[in-house]
Amino acid sequence: MDRIYKILPKHAFLPIFISLFINLNAYFLSRVFTSKLNHKDLSGKLDKDIPFVKEFMIIYMLAYVVWIVGYIVIGREEKSICYKIFTAEQIAKIMCLLCFIFIPTTMVRPHIMGNEWLDIFCKMVYSSDGVLSNGQFIADNLFPSVHCLESWVCFRGALKSKRMGNIYTVIMGICTVLIFASTLLVKQHIIIDVFGGVAVFEVAMYIENKLEVSRLYYYFENRKQKRLSNNEE
């Protein structure tokens, strides 16, 4: 455990666990309510003009690596930054859940005809990232884009980081822009989804700054310390 704590301090485990728990529920629990609903396609003319570039599916999937790095960096920051960023992220995810339930959206994905490895890879992502309806997988849980939300969280964490330098911030910013572009170029999202992903986090950060919901982490931490002290006595 000591080796793990060198990578990720103890105070980061609970926020990250809660973030992952809310994420799973926001993404999959929403389908319990929306799988039978009529999903709306909010695509505009500009969205339809964006080409499908299958090579960007690699960047789309590499986003998970960026998030792991970004989460570890945020977790390694001092408690005030770690708790605040993750609390805002959790509020944003709850907002996503509500959007997924009350604004169910979909979009038309391209029909991939090729059989090269990248074509097969794209088909696999499409089939795994959708809900089965009328015998076919349809895209769902699009607005706001969780892909863009998570990437923006990591970038905002980089901006607030006191441990990492400007180079890391620039790299994370470039990665974020590329991930935003990938969601559009592989036809997993439309433009409004990208802006929605950014907007929900900024609204959530505003709520956190006003209400300081992150104080709950200090409360639970103090209770845990008191419990340990009582046991030692």
Walk me through this protein's architecture.
This protein is mostly helical. Helices cover 72% and strands 4% of the residues. It contains ten helices and four strands. The strands form two sheets. A two-stranded parallel sheet has the order 1-2. It has a two-stranded antiparallel ribbon with strand order 3-4. α4 packs antiparallel against α8 and α7 packs across α9. The radius of gyration is 19 Å and the shape is globular.
Q: What's the quaternary structure here?
A: single chain
Q: Report the mean per-residue pLDDT as an integer.
A: 89
Order of helices and strands: HHEHHHEHEEHHHH
Largest sheet: 2 strands, parallel
Low-confidence stretches: none
Describe the secondary-structure layout.
Blueprint: H1 2-7, H2 10-34, E1 40-41, H3 45-49, H4 56-76, H5 79-102, E2 105-106, H6 117-128, E3 131-133, E4 136-138, H7 146-160, H8 166-185, H9 191-211, H10 215-232
Parallel strand pairs: 1-2
Antiparallel strand pairs: 3-4
Question: What is the structure about, briefly put?
Answer:
The protein is mainly α and 233 residues long. It is 72% helix and 4% strand.
